[in-house]
Amino acid sequence: MVDLHIHTSFSPDSNIAPERACRAAYARGLKIIGFADHVEFLPEDGAYVDLYDGAKILAEIERLRERYRDKLEILYGAEVGFIPGKESQIKDFLDSQPLDYAVGSVHYVDGVLVSKWVRERELAGKGFAPYFEIVLAAAESGLFQVLGHLDYIRKYLFAPQEYGREDYEGMVDRILESAAKQGLVIELNTSGWRHATGEPYPGEKILKRFAQLGRGLTGGVTGVTGVAGGVTVTVGSDAHKDYEVGYGNERARRLLQRAGFGSVEVFRVRRRFSFPL
Ligand SMILES: [Zn+2]
Ligand SMILES: [Zn+2]
After folding, report:
1. Could you give the maximum distance between any two Cα atoms of the chain, in Å?
2. Segment 104-130 mean pLDDT
């Protein structure tokens, strides 16, 4: 299996030494991993783009590629925090780095960290549409290969099962349609299985809906294997601890197969390849 969402000690909120991530991944039977360290576009964030040292990360990846040759494929990714209005800055960054892929994620709404924003909205009895608007903008920006943890606002809710997800179904559909049209890969982020919400981001219902869109686009179930229709998925653990590398991988495989997917996607120098489930 694969895990394209690992934070190493190059992310301010993780202390997994890159070599340790490789050891954990190899021990757990993963075939392909991707380092997806944080890059943010607000100066107050600890992962602000000006602090990013891509050359250092790539040098370490190259050393590990040598060390793990024939054992483990190591991809160079980044998790980029999408902020509306910062598209050209994000594009300049992406153009300047020899990344295998970029995961686009929403970590801020109106300048407030999603963790804080969600709890304030929940306590005030306000909805979460502004978050999904930004996820849609991230999808439509065309900047990313992978769309990260689509509905991860559930992570921070006191009552994650009652947040009124049906209110956002229309918006989620628009996000999925945008992804399907462009071939933007939707991430199944397994970290939700270790949070109070107990379900990955996104959950089975959204994944099935996405697979269904593939059938609609291509007129056949083959459309969901990742070959046609652009309805494609990948898997990431969002590991910030070494023991989280590959977390929930087998469960993810079963969930994706149930939803109708035959493969997950990986990227080498931003070219997409399918990895059979
Ligand atoms: Zn994230
Ligand atoms: Zn992450």
Report:
1. 53
2. 96
**CATH number for the domain formed by residue range(s) 2-276:** 3.20.20.140
> What's the rounded mean pLDDT across residues 5-9?
98
Ligand 2 centroid to Cα of residue 152, in Å, is 11
- Position 214 pLDDT exceeds 90: no
What number is the average pLDDT over the span 99-106? 98
The dihedrals phi and psi of 273, each to the nearest 5 degrees, come to -130, 145
Contact 208, 157 (CB under 8 A): no
Average pLDDT over the chain reads: 93
Report the DSSP beta bridge partners of residue 154. none
Query: Ligand 1 centroid to 148 CA: how many Å?
Result: 7
pTM above 0.85, yes or no: yes
Q: Residue 228 has what pLDDT?
A: 41
Q: Which ligand is nearest to the CA of 238?
A: 2
Please name which ligand lies nearest the alpha carbon of 155: 1
Q: What average pLDDT score do residues 26-50 get?
A: 98
Q: How far is the CA of 90 from the centre of ligand 1 (A)?
A: 16
Classify strands 112-113 and 108-109 as parallel, antiparallel or unpaired.
antiparallel
Strands (DSSP E) contained in 22-181 are 32-39, 73-81, 101-105, 108-109, 112-113, 146-147
The alpha carbon of 52 and the centre of ligand 2 are apart by a number of angstroms equal to 16
How far apart (Å, rounded) are the C-alpha atoms in residues 43 and 52?
12
Residue 208 identity? K
Instruction: Map tokens 């990714």 to a residue.
Output: 77
- Give residue 220 CA to ligand 1 midpoint distance, Å: 33
Bigger pLDDT: 92 vs 220? 92
pLDDT computed for residue 2 by the predictor? 98
Residues facing 32 on adjacent strands: 2, 73
CA of 272 to the centre of ligand 2 (A): 20
